[in-house]
Amino acid sequence: MSVDPDDVTRFAIKNLGATDITYGSAVLPGAMFLVAYLTPPVHQLSKGPIPILGIPACGMYAKATVFDLVLPRILAGESISRRELAELGHGGLCLKCPDCRYPVCPFGK
After folding, report:
1. How many other C-beta atoms are found inside a 10 Å radius of the C-beta of residue 103?
2. Does residue 55 contact residue 70 with C-beta atoms inside 8 Å?
3. Are 56 and 29 in contact (CB under 8 A)?
4. The model scores a pTM over 0.90
């Protein structure tokens, strides 16, 4: 995900047929996070919608981002909605401690 106005990531994800597209979170770093769900064709063996995660550029350099908070929940089969992303705003500021101890810190709690 990019701040560049020419970034077509969201447009492409929508054109795939994704629904429940949520763009933006109350977590820093990672405010430009995207969660969407793609319903697979009937003939595929998937048990439900396939999550699509759009990771902001900070995911390449920050030690902990909103992706670190959301991925375990996605892998556990939870569905992440706009409400869940908004609730992550409580404790959603990474303090960039000199000695990062994530996940043993207040980030995302």
Report:
1. 11
2. no
3. yes
4. no
